[in-house]
Write a structure and sequence with these properties.
By secondary structure, the protein is α/β, with parallel strands linked by helices. The chain has 13 helices and 22 strands. The strands form 5 sheets. Strands 1, 2, 3, 4, 5, 6 and 17 form a 7-stranded mixed beta sheet that branches. A hairpin with a 2-residue loop joins strand 12 and strand 13. The chain is globular and about 70 Å long. About 45% of the residues are buried. The structure holds flavin-adenine dinucleotide. The site of flavin-adenine dinucleotide has 36 residues, from helix 1, strand 2, helix 2, helix 3 and strand 4.
Length: about 475
């Protein structure tokens, strides 16, 4: 069975980038259709990414906090994990949010066509759904088809004990021993969850630090903490993975590589994500897709084809939901005739680990690469009343300033709730604040965000007696 519809705007993919673009387009009065191959809206982020991982990290945090208060005279005893109930909690959170998106699209009269969409020309996409083909004729298209986990040819990915992040989020079992391949954000977040559930975890990372994008001093504080729960194998890579009946045997090479293959109950491959650009027959619409599957766009999110835009993970790094949302708004507004550009000064990055690692704007590494004269100031949480009172003194708030203007150009926080505290630094950079602006802003006491003002005071020279 085949049917045909026509619309002003079609959005291919219903992740954060796609639904944000579709909703904005509809709000601006454009006829809008979303094509999504899965039954629910929300893409990777809501279904198998940001949201389910944070639900599980919330539980992991409660477990760790309950353990930690034993040192202060309150003993809860060993946690009993009911995996089915935990999975239901995660699914309820996901369902609430994806269901909400369904309601929001209905309210806006955005039609959802379920199925796998491919271009057949510069104004048509053919969608293969469970109940037949739908041909969507469009004036404008926005490609928001996202990304998927990278797989390696020497890894038997079809073995159920070899996981990607989606498998890890399914929470089918709590393995005795898990190898997390890749010390980036996704691997460490999932490692944090499983460690709290009782799994013994090794993390193998090619670089000499985990979270390679963050500055060394920030990661040092983080590493000191996570070494208590993970065995970190740095400057080492996996060279062979063999699935045997009694476990997955992993061979590693490098500075810290074990001499013999190591047996694991499961292996989580978290070595990055790759864009879905090659599965869309984009060439039939004349769209250039690079050899990795990314689609190049200009600052208005327009591809090389005038009526076709692209947003989200598929247009490049950083592959983050909030970046895609803003790009989606730009694309929709440009299509509606408004003048809008994607030109943010900063896009924040956060590892929702324990403790959290968060940074925004330039890192020192980037400032050096870009030959920018900079200075830094840090406030250690060992000097923060709130951090000490909350048993969270292993943290730091760091600011990076332009040496000449003293404007904030970057910042990082490692510590409990670091991600929540980062907002002030992002705003400071966007607004062009200098050290004095932050130092003179009265921050409430005792709070953790006070540390942002105090780091600026350190830079101004008004605090000198730090531990
Ligand atoms: P996606 O979310 O990938 O959505 C693309 C959609 O397009 C999918 O629903 C897909 O089914 C659909 N699609 C693709 N091709 C077709 C086709 N041909 N036809 C029909 N439909 C198609 N980011 C953060 O900012 N914060 C976090 O805390 C965070 N945590 C994460 C945790 C994990 C475990 C993972 C895996 C990712 C996480 N991310 C996080 C990244 C975030 O999920 C992505 O950056 C975000 O989802 C990208 O949004 P998108 O709209 O570009 O694409």
């Amino acid at each position: 069975m085949s049917k045909e519809i026509s619309t002003q705007v079609v959005v291919l993919g219903a992740g954060p980038a796609g639904y944000s673009a579709a909703f904005r387009a509809a709000d601006l009065g454009l006829d809008t259709v979303i094509i999504e191959r899965f039954d629910t809206l929300g893409g990777v982020c809501l279904n198998v990414g940001c949201i389910p991982s944070k639900a599980l990290l919330h539980v992991a945090k409660v477990i760790e906090e309950a353990k930690a208060v034993a040192d202060h005279g309150v003993v809860f005893g060993e946690p009993k994990i009911d995996l089915d109930k935990l999975r239901s909690f995660k699914e309820k959170v996901v369902g609430q949010l994806t269901g909400g998106l369904g309601g929001m699209s209905k309210m806006r009269k955005v039609d959802v066509v379920n199925g796998f969409g491919k271009f057949t020309g510069p104004n048509t996409i053919e969608v293969q759904g469970a109940d037949g083909v739908t041909v969507v004729n469009f004036e404008h298209a926005i490609i928001a088809a996202g990304s998927r986990p990278i797989q390696l040819p020497f890894i038997p990915h079809d073995d159920p004990r070899i996981w990607d992040s989606t498998d890890a989020l399914e929470l089918k079992e709590v393995p005795g021993k898990l190898l997390v391949m890749g010390g980036g954000i996704i691997g460490l977040e999932m490692g944090t969850v499983y460690s709290s559930l009782g799994t013994d975890i090794d993390v193998v990372e090619m670089f000499d630090q985990v979270i390679p994008a963050a500055d060394k001093d920030v990661v040092r504080i983080f590493t000191k903490q996570i070494k208590k729960k993970f065995n970190l194998i740095l400057q080492t890579k996996v060279t062979a993975v063999e699935a045997k009946e009694d476990g997955i045997y992993v061979t590693m090479e490098g500075k810290k590589a074990p001499a013999e293959p190591v047996r694991y109950d499961a292996v989580l491959v978290a070595i990055g994500r790759t864009p879905n650009g090659k599965s869309l027959d984009a060439e039939k619409a004349g769209i250039n897709v690079d050899e990795r599957g990314f689609i190049n766009v200009d600052k208005q999110m327009r591809t090389n084809v005038n009526n076709i835009f692209a947003i989200g993970d598929i247009v490049g790094q950083p592959m983050l939901a909030h970046k895609g949302v803003h790009e989606g708004h730009v694309a929709a507004e440009v299509i509606s005739g408004l003048k809008h550009f994607f030109d943010p000064k900063v896009i924040p990055s956060i590892a929702y680990t324990d403790p959290e690692v968060a940074w925004v704007g330039l890192t020192e590494k980037e400032a050096k690469e870009q030959d920018i004269a900079y200075e830094t100031a840090s406030f250690p949480w060992a000097a923060s009343g709130r951090a000490i009172a909350s048993d969270a003194s292993e943290g730091m708030t760091k600011l990076i300033f332009d040496k000449e203007t003293h404007r904030v150009i970057g910042g990082a926080i490692v510590g409990v709730n670091g991600g929540e505290l980062l907002g002030e630094i992002g705003l400071a950079i966007e607004m062009g604040c200098d050290a004095e602006d932050l130092a003179l802003t009265i921050h409430a006491h005792p709070t953790l965000h006070e540390s942002v003002g105090l780091a600026a005071e350190v830079y101004e020279g008004s605090i000198t007696d730090l531990p």
